[in-house]
Amino acid sequence: MRYVLVGGGVAAAATAAALRRRGFDGEIVLVSDEPEAPYERPPLSKDVLTGGDIVPARKPEWYAGNGVELRLSTRATAVDVAARSVRLADGDDLRYDALVLATGMRPRGLPGFDGDRIHYLRTAADARALRAELTGAERVVVLGAGFVGCEVAASAIGLGKQVTIFEPEATPLARVLGVKIGAAVLDIHRARGVEVRTGEYAVTCTRTGDGLVLDSNLGHRAEADLVLVGVGALPNVELADEAGIATGNGILVDEYGRTSAPDVWALGDVAAQQHHGRRVRVEHHDNALRQGQTIAANLTGEEKPHTDPHWFWSDHYEHKLQSVGHASDLDDLVLRGSVEEGSFSAFSLTDGRLDGVISLGRPGDVLAVRRALHTPHAVTVDELRDESLPLKQLLSR
Fold this sequence. Notes:
By secondary structure, this protein is α/β, with parallel strands linked by helices. The chain has eleven helices and 27 strands. It folds into three domains: 2-106 and 233-299, FAD/NAD(P)-binding domain; 109-229, FAD/NAD(P)-binding domain (3-Layer(bba) Sandwich); 318-394, FAD/NAD-linked reductase, C-terminal dimerisation domain (Enolase-like, domain 1), CATH 3.30.390.30. Helix 1 runs parallel beside helix 8.
């Protein structure tokens, strides 16, 4: 029996590890178009840029020791669901008994912004190229104040660079955190000397003899030694789509991770999954790791849905932003603490039950909510706001 895993991130590695841990003794073949064994992507915008190493999802020797065949620098070009095979770029066909698609995402391109000194960040190769140029740069411009843009800006500031961010929204991370919390992130970066130009975006990029000149929609100009484009990412659905597997905003899967094709599964950033009655696609490390464990369970005889609450974190200098669950309305969050002081939790509440929390500098609140999300509890707006009432006790009643 052979299971083929397509993808070079933590999702594929977690699936392989969980399969072996659960006693699967058939063949496992992991196919990745990158030269490295699967690695963790969160450090690419942080530690790797400031001199750290790539963090492997598993030590390289683990794969050989556990009978997992790595087909690196090898792209999967087609899936034949009727023949149960994957065509590789080198012409090989891999027959499978089960296929797991963990094809991840790619950066969204910005027309007119490519070539020398313009960077996108998704892979280890991207991070190494950015780090090499960042060392000698003085002026860094970041397009987009999403998670990648903000984290790269923080890394560049830590290296003593002059940083400008263009962000068309009113605040950083407004679409995923809301304007109020985005304003707190904005204050954090401005306090560190980042020039954040909100409501503004670059429309042209001109090369000069020793750098780049960007002109904005508002007629302003910024000079740069290098540019990081962080305007979002797109799920890599092409392999599934061309095979006739149902796709949308990602590869469509049920709560177990099954696609529309027999014995084909999908997980990680690319999977748009049924989760507690709604379809979501989650682009975070922890979700990919846990989905790998779920799919391995299902491949070894269980019938296990993926119901874990979604959790993520993002580092901004010494500040750690975390969230768990899903905020039903970003404009109607219940605040505990102080946004102005950079220590708060913002709760999403529906009919006395928590949907999720977004927290800055309060990891204990995140842990308490994570434990409570799928257990019985009842709490009021006034109780959540009252810091004299311990959150852990409120949610354990």
